[in-house]
Write a structure and sequence with these properties.
3-stranded antiparallel beta sheet, about 35% helix, binds (4S)-2,6-dioxohexahydropyrimidine-4-carboxylic acid, binds zinc ion
């Protein structure tokens, strides 16, 4: 029998998109009321490539939610200088470096086409043990989209590790059994994030009974065999696997174009959804390691001092849509009313957040 209530150390989100402007104001509190530290991705309209920009972004996020810790990676480009990375790391502006293969996903057109051009940056990072966060998909149009993660591992990641064996790596948002197997057995300092949505979606869920724009993201969900491998990895207790929601909101107008923007906005339900998956796998005792311990251990950070309680009760107020924060009254041209859809898992949620408290209340 699964427990119906679970208290764990407060978790962190090791991969999230908190966006900018009104979208940022709307979505940020949904992450920060649950997660203590959040890696906020740098693929903004102007990518974050300088320590100054990272500092400014952090300030904007803290104005919205003063009591969380935003961690900002530098958006890697072929002309990124090692000195920029070292300076940003030393001052605490850059937590990590994010490698987007050029053209792989949303706002990655300024990313890296040839990773060998970044050798000096990777060497500098290796010296200071700074993590490289990788979107692991090749972008070759000849490669079938469902094979792009596997091919990235074979053609880019393995040679990159061979060239930079001391580089600390996080392979993000795994979607395939091949990637799970690679991370589990790699002979290097590597970890991986797994999203909640990839634990509950396979590719049929995106396409059956019509196309579901709010189940579509990159890397795209793969087969049921792959999903089962991801569930086994997340619930295994293996310290290499950690929570990273990759919550990536897009407004409804971006989701309802001829080409649908990739990204799933999961932050309002992510932690209960992970709990549900762990309950289904009879592995609730492994949730704390995955959500709250493996990440800080890998990144050499302290565990959070609060704890969070989840209950096996369907959420009472789980909105399907959110309206964007109102435009400030002094804006000359008010934007039209915009909203976004919250991810709805194929099996309705059975878990909800109950409370957050200090770990050892006296
Ligand atoms: O689906 C995705 N959306 N995958 C990514 O890698 C980026 C993200 C976004 O920023 O929208
Ligand atoms: Zn992402």
């Amino acid at each position: 029998m699964n427990p119906t209530s679970l208290t764990i150390t407060q978790p962190d989100d090791w991969h999230c998109h908190l966006r900018e402007g009104r979208l940022m104001k709307t979505v940020t509190p949904y992450s920060t009321e649950v997660f203590s530290r959040v890696i906020a991705m740098p693929n903004l309209s102007k990518p974050i490539t300088s320590p100054e920009h990272a500092r400014l972004y952090k300030k904007q996020l803290l104005k919205i939610s003063p009591s969380f810790t935003p961690l900002i990676p530098c958006y890697l480009q072929e002309n990124t200088l090692p000195e920029t990375i070292l300076k940003g790391h030393e001052n605490g502006d850059f937590f990590a470096v994010k490698y987007y293969p050029r053209g792989a996903t949303t706002k990655s057109h300024l990313g890296v086409a040839n990773w060998k051009a970044c050798a000096a940056v990777f060497d500098a990072m290796s010296e200071i043990n700074m993590p490289l966060l990788i979107h692991g998909e090749v972008t070759d149009p000849q490669v079938d989209i469902f094979d792009r993660e596997k091919l990235f591992i074979q053609d880019i990641l393995i040679p990159l590790i061979a060239q930079h064996p001391k580089l600390k790596i996080v392979l993000e948002h795994l979607t395939s059994a091949h990637a799970v197997n690679f991370v589990s057995h790699a002979d290097t300092e590597i970890a991986a994030t797994i999203t909640a949505h990839h634990l509950v979606l396979n590719r049929t869920h995106i396409l059956e009974h019509g196309l579901h724009p709010h189940r579509f993201c990159y890397p795209v969900a793969k087969t049921e065999y792959d999903r089962q491998a991801l569930r086994r990895a997340a619930t295994s207790g293996n310290p290499r696997f950690m929570l990273g929601t990759d919550s990536a909101p897009h407004t409804l107008d971006a989701k309802h174009q001829h080409t649908i923007s990739p990204g799933i906005f999961s932050s309002p339900i992510a932690l209960p959804l992970y709990a549900q998956v762990f309950a289904e796998e009879h592995a609730l005792d492994k949730l704390e390691a995955f959500a709250s311990i493996n990440g800080p251990q890998f990144h050499k950070l302290p565990l959070n001092t609060k704890s969070i309680t989840l209950k096996a009760i369907p959420p009472q107020d789980n909105p399907s849509y959110l309206s964007l924060s109102e435009t400030p009254a002094n804006t000359k041209k008010p934007k039209p009313h915009l909203s976004l859809a919250v991810f709805q898992p194929p099996i309705p949620l059975q878990w909800s957040l109950s409370s957050i408290q200090n770990k050892n209340p006296s």
